[in-house]
Amino acid sequence: MRPSARLASLLSVAVALAGCASAPPPAPTPPPPPAVQGPVQPGLDLQLLGGPRTRVGLGEPVRVAVSVERAASVYCYYEFNERHRRQIVRLYPNRFQPDPRLGSGRSVVVPGGDARFDVVPTGRGREKLVCVATLLDAPFPSVPAVARGPDLTPLKVRSATGAAFEHVILAPRSSSVRVLEWQVP
DSSP class of residue 1? Predict the structure, then answer.
């Protein structure tokens, strides 16, 4: 082999090797993205005291145990009939139970034992208690207007569910709503 052919052959091998050496190593396979966490809920529960039932007698006092699994702010709205009109009032918190915060695994009876009022159906028909719980560490700007007005007075909302969802709008991923209904025959 002539020296110039040999040199050209060596140069082509060197260039090929240099090309291989200068190529970056393949990028490592990235780890899979973390699993998307779903909403974290407060674990809200409502129980009518006196056992599960769907009927409450006219004039019979109503008390409800409200509990959360995780620390949360709780607001409850009562929808009832009075003089053939639907009324909605904020039942909890109230002037006798002013703190909406419940610790993890805690419960409160609404209305409480120290409350100077009772929930007593005075009209026939369907009634309900709608509660909303929002985790205490949830980032939300403020309490909605429906919760800032006076307690135990008629609200200017169409339903108790609508009042609760004004809270959910502020923290949709960390709020729970529960509805407890009963019939007054």
Answer: -
* Pairwise CA distance, residues 26 & 46, whole Å: 57
Measured CA to CA, the distance from residue 175 to residue 172 in angstroms comes to 6
- DSSP for residue 173: G
Distance between CA atoms of residues 182 and 56, nearest Å: 6
DSSP annotation string for 13-72: HHHHHHHHHHSPPPPPPPPPPPPPP-------EEEETTSS-SB--TT--B-EEEE-SS-E
pLDDT tens for 22-57 read 555 666 665 655 544 556 789 999 999 998 889 999
| Cis amide linkage into residue 25, ω under 30° from 0 | no
